[in-house]
Design goal:
The chain has 97 residues and is mainly alpha-helical. It contains 5 helices and no strands.
Length: 97
């Protein structure tokens, strides 16, 4: 695979569905703790919106362009951390414009 976007495009549908469900659960859990006065329905809607944005072609393309390939001296953990930070910044910008 030459980039992250290509990797995501060839992911198995079952894997995508599974990771989408897990991501939604994780977001629901985190938001529920922070926003205790928010209804479960609102939390679910927000979580769904985050997941939809995270898997959108625009975000995948931007993330792929931002992270590029792992740096020569970069460990796998460092690359994952850099990727997570880049995704966080993209999502924050898109969700809270």
């Amino acid at each position: 695979m030459s980039d992250f976007k290509s990797f995501v495009k060839v992911m198995d549908t079952d894997v995508k569905n599974s990771s989408t469900k897990e991501l939604t659960k994780k977001i629901n859990s985190e938001v529920s703790v922070v926003a205790q006065d928010t209804s479960n329905n609102e939390v679910s809607k927000f979580s769904g919106k985050v997941v939809d944005i995270a898997y959108s072609d625009a975000v995948i393309s931007e993330l792929s362009n931002t992270i590029g390939e792992p740096n020569k001296e970069e460990s796998e953990d460092e690359f994952v951390d850099r990727t997570k930070l880049a995704l966080y910044r993209i999502l924050k910008r898109k969700l809270f414009r």
